């Protein structure tokens, strides 16, 4: 039997929490271990339950989801945080991704899609639909400071690392990168790990965003 995916749901609306519990609870491999109504309670719940995935509402009174995301992503063995919002990919969402969130979902995501994307996040992959990706790129388009920083950081990369980073920006998996660049998956994983350190990125999604900021991937 596959390992059960432990999920924490964070939203200031109890009805939303109940709705997400019902959807996720219908999957045999997912367990909602708790829900929280603000960021401070979310941080405490992560320490208490050690979930693999946190669905995090960003706009809450008190300690908001962005602050909670920053705190959780700094923890040792941090869970995968997925920003949950009713809004388009504005700069608030972008800040959550830069803080370490592995992706974002809108609350209107169909139930089966939500279950599948939670599984994707639990496996350590980026959670970003094509529609979300388009919105995100539109939100990053005007950030001059981010572009300048990305160009500066990528100057420190080797030619091969640039190729791998470009592939990350295109949303490719390690297996796809390995096939496209004629490398082993282990070699690709090693490149990605080194680049995350060089680029001061927490995860593949942050590196992929940086590839867009640096102009390596067309918008």
UniProtKB/TrEMBL annotation:
<keyword id="KW-0804">Transcription</keyword>
<dbReference type="Pfam" id="PF00196">
    <property type="entry name" value="GerE"/>
</dbReference>
<dbReference type="InterPro" id="IPR001789">
    <property type="entry name" value="Sig_transdc_resp-reg_receiver"/>
</dbReference>
<dbReference type="InterPro" id="IPR058245">
    <property type="entry name" value="NreC/VraR/RcsB-like_REC"/>
</dbReference>
<keyword id="KW-0597">Phosphoprotein</keyword>
<dbReference type="InterPro" id="IPR016032">
    <property type="entry name" value="Sig_transdc_resp-reg_C-effctor"/>
</dbReference>
<feature type="domain" description="Response regulatory">
    <location>
        <begin position="6"/>
        <end position="122"/>
    </location>
</feature>
<dbReference type="InterPro" id="IPR039420">
    <property type="entry name" value="WalR-like"/>
</dbReference>
<feature type="domain" description="HTH luxR-type">
    <location>
        <begin position="150"/>
        <end position="215"/>
    </location>
</feature>
<keyword id="KW-0238">DNA-binding</keyword>
<dbReference type="InterPro" id="IPR011006">
    <property type="entry name" value="CheY-like_superfamily"/>
</dbReference>
<feature type="modified residue" description="4-aspartylphosphate">
    <location>
        <position position="57"/>
    </location>
</feature>
<protein>
    <submittedName>
        <fullName>Response regulator transcription factor</fullName>
    </submittedName>
</protein>
<dbReference type="InterPro" id="IPR000792">
    <property type="entry name" value="Tscrpt_reg_LuxR_C"/>
</dbReference>
<keyword id="KW-0805">Transcription regulation</keyword>
<dbReference type="Pfam" id="PF00072">
    <property type="entry name" value="Response_reg"/>
</dbReference>
